[in-house]
Amino acid sequence: MAASLVFRLHDRGPQLVREVLLERGWKEYDKRKREDRDWNLYWRGSEFHSSEYHSLLPWQRLNHHPKTAGITRKDSLVRNLRRMKATFGSALYNFSPTTFILPNEYTSFLAEYKLLPNREQSVCWICKPVDLSRGRGIFLFRDMKDLVYNCSVVVQRYISNPLLISGYKFDLRIYVCVKSFHPLTVYIHQEALVRFATEKYNLSSLSNVFAHLTNTSINKFGPFYKTQKGQVGSGCKWTMSKFRYFLQNQNINELFLWQRINNIVTLTLLSITGSVPNCPNCVELFGFDILIDSKFRPWLLEVNHNPSLALDCRTDLSVKKGLISDLVDLMDYTAVDGLRGKTYQTQRNVQTSFNANISTPVPSLPKLKDHNFQQKNKKSSKMHHEKTKRQIPPVETLHWILGSKMKVVKTGFSSGQMKYTPQVTNRDDAETQDEMENEVSSSVLGTQGRRSTFRPSTDSWRLPDKYRKRRRFHVEEAKPPIGQHVPPIRAGGFIRTFPFNPATLKASLVKLDVLVVIQELQKLTAQVASGRLEETTGEEEEEDEDCFDSLLWGPEDPPLLSQWLNSKTKNT
Ligand code: ADP
């Protein structure tokens, strides 16, 4: 029987992750019973230490990429978006409200403030501590004399004309999974949360947090939380599906709204892609907070690196449980991940039979290009290595299990591009699960055509039934160009939003060509806005279109991009 996959939760971790994985047949890591590194997935709310990225084994995954604070800290996000704005233009990077980082930019803020007409009455500002979340420490003000702070904060122009439902303000919590930064591979989930304020929006009372902030952590303590609030109902959350239904009666180009949100996600991620080291075995779930104004224009408020997985109400349950389950599907655990169990089992046997030298380290990682980073982490990494090396399965053991033809390479991370170890990491280049399994099995055993005796637990890696049929259909539709890395078009509710066409696939394969990506994004947005396909120029492009397709994220039943564009062309 196949060994179960093992998950490890830091600090007892999110209960929801535990529940989903146990239901799928995983086992929870118990440090009294297992060796330090005998696990497949390590989940933690906070960042991992750099040494933990360095010492990853082929079958181990972490739920954070290294160095993503560039978008998840409020001040870093501002700096990165500003840099992109300066390089690629303010017409493109216009989705974040004007922001100042205080105290450093106090003078610039003052200058901007003084330029505003009728400043006491008109413009509102919102002040937020840079490293707090859940609405803590936030306040609104109009008059400069009300700006009081004792820590690093961002002061941001308040979007004072939000779209309201029955008079209540709301924002969207969009779930984004970055499966890889090198090459950039992004999925956005079809389900999301609509988070409402619980008192009617009113600009004459800026101090009422229940009217101006949409954080659940605040509103669930509001006096009107349980009251029926017009169309909003009781509580403070809707699912995205309910919001889509609301949008249908709004007489707007719904697809264009989704595409603009999709653009915000891609453009924000582009701002850090170059600085995130390559770590193929990491996957990260980000929470993008988007506010829609009364003109249906989406704004980015912030990016969360640890979106809440708490279950406060039924809506949470219906959105978040599917989300985590789809995330596990996206992690794409395959036969190779079961080698953990085999390795640790065999290690014990080898130790007793051959008295193997278990302190032999696994061969070294690809070297980091970032010299300073290396220096800084050398010491801690060495300490960590010393601490853990006696528990790493020896190379002989790994070879014995993986087969002599299999090169044993730890996955770790590097700042270089495309350091793939395809034989032991996610396999997006195989077209079907069976093919993937065959490839892994034969390479693992160093044999051709002979199937591994190891069979992964079907519960733990297959798509849920309701998506399997649809996914197969789309995978058939989207044949990969020969020799290119084509990530699956979807995994359950997660829709691949980047790369979205042959040009962006090509632009992301070696060193990300941001300019090409931006041009393609603009082209697609114009097409979605007008609902028309631009003239294609050559045969090559048409051929590529046949080979690589994407789904349009957002609408309830997302159409294939090519089919949607073709149908629009025929109709015009
Ligand atoms: P936190 O990390 O503390 O949740 P956010 O930046 O998400 O901080 O802000 C909390 C809430 O404040 C948001 O959910 C939103 O309702 C409101 N908010 C934040 N910034 C703005 C803004 N610029 N305009 C309008 N509302 C905002």
Automatic annotation (TrEMBL):
Composition-biased stretches (Acidic residues): 536-548
Superkingdom as given in the UniProt entry: Eukaryota
Biased composition (Polar residues): 439-460
A GO MF term: tubulin-glutamic acid ligase activity
UniProt cross-references to PROSITE patterns, sorted A to Z: TTL (PS51221)
GO cellular component, one term: ciliary basal body
A biological-process GO annotation: microtubule cytoskeleton organization
This protein's UniProt keywords: ATP-binding, Ligase, Nucleotide-binding
SUPFAM superfamilies (alphabetical): Glutathione synthetase ATP-binding domain-like
Keyword Nucleotide-binding: yes
Compositional bias (Basic residues): 376-390
Region described as Disordered: 365-390, 419-461, 530-549
Protein name (database record): Tubulin tyrosine ligase-like family, member 2
